[in-house]
Amino acid sequence: MPLFGPRAFTLRIPGGPTGGPFGDNKLVYHDEFLSTEIGQTGTQFDGLGHIGIQLGKDGDKSEMRFYNGHTAAEISDAYGLKKLGVEKLKPLFTRAHLVDMVALKGGMMDAGQEITSADIKAALAKQNMSESDIKPGDAIMFHTGWGSLWMKNNDRFNSGEPGIGLDAARWVIEKDLALTAADTWAVEVVPNPDKSLAFVVHAELQTKHGIHNHENLIFDELIADKKYQFVYCFAPAPIKGATGSNGCPIAIT
Ligand code: UVW
Question: So where does this one cross the membrane (predicted)?
């Protein structure tokens, strides 16, 4: 894209500024050069080019399938995604339902602990809600308590997580929901109780059904205020060819 001036980080004095002074008015500015994994860090939204499934022989890109049946060979090259890049998405704005699993289970859930469809129904009932409140196109979000480890015990946070398994994923598909989310880095249970499976909920929801996923969300204030239904609003950063987006989702209550 067009880029004005020498837009690279040049440290002049500790802390900058990085540009100027310009003109008789002596304007100065700060900017930065960022080189990092960007779509899949922090509070992160999974685009549909993120997760695929290897069919056929391992390494055969013509049999590595992504959403809508696209092959790896078709969708990606050295410059990122040619199809399904996160920049293709419009901002998301939909009703969301927050499921408080901590209230249901009596405390923070543990790594490898699965949230089932029966748990979802029980948690909703405890919140005086029912699954009939949840309509096609809505978002479903899970407060597991695991997010309380963030920056306090990162080793444990990364070691695994509680989350939805295939049973709950099938419930999400049946309800025709648009998005799943949680206070964890994958939303799904890790490790999966079936040790032969790796991130199978990602593949089931994203690759096979085009259902988006939002990870590492903070629900503390919503939970404290017992706000279980709100409007979820998020505009993915339109980074061309990116697999996902960081950024700040908003709950409008
Ligand atoms: C995987 O990549 C499997 O998970 P995440 O969506 O957290 O990046």
Answer: none
